[in-house]
Design goal:
The chain is of the alpha/beta class. It is built from 6 helices and 6 strands, in the order βαβαβαβαβαβα. About 40% of the residues lie in helices and about 15% in strands.
Length: about 170
């Protein structure tokens, strides 16, 4: 029997709590081993409420201490790139919240780090699985919208982006 994948989360805010942790907990072959957050009390609280054994104040310490297979990057947008690059350089696969990065150059650094490390970098584009998006995709696949050559969409976040992100 294969061992369970060892995963952790950088950032203990709402997206980690209501999306990443429940998803990991629903998968039997995954062991959530740690969480880090610059607000160490928030990391400790999330660890306690989600039955995660260890919490850290810095992702660097967590990467050095834990033997991780994968990490979810759930930080404010401005910190996606440095955290993801650090994880990839530590040999850890990365699932990063959207957007990839604030600046295209930072996104390119993330992609280059993944290629150099031979690790996966995945950006969470979960909206493609929303029912309304699935209906639209079905319309396109069935040709009900004709030849689609341009599309534009938008998304409203009523509470804004937390922290330092944009």
């Amino acid at each position: 029997m294969a061992r369970k994948l060892r995963v952790a989360c950088v950032g203990a805010g709402s997206v980690a709590r209501w999306a990443h942790m429940p998803a990991y907990q629903a998968i039997g072959d995954i062991e959530i081993v740690a969480v880090s957050d610059v607000n160490v009390e928030r990391a400790k609280e999330m660890a306690a409420s989600c039955d995660i054994p260890r919490s850290y104040e810095t992702h660097q310490e967590m990467f050095e201490t834990e033997q991780l297979d994968c990490v979810s990057v759930c930080t404010p947008n401005a910190f996606h790139a440095p955290v993801a690059v650090a994880a990839l350089e530590a040999g850890i696969h990365v699932i990063c919240e959207k957007p990839l990065a604030i600046k295209p150059a930072d996104g390119a650094k993330m992609v280059a780090a993944a290629k150099k490390a031979g690790k996966n970098l995945m950006i969470g584009c979960q909206h493609r699985y929303r029912p309304e998006v699935q209906v639209l995709k079905d319309y396109v696949d069935r040709g009900r919208l004709g030849d689609v050559y341009y599309g534009r969409c938008g998304f409203v976040r009523r509470r804004g982006t937390p922290g330092v992100g944009r």
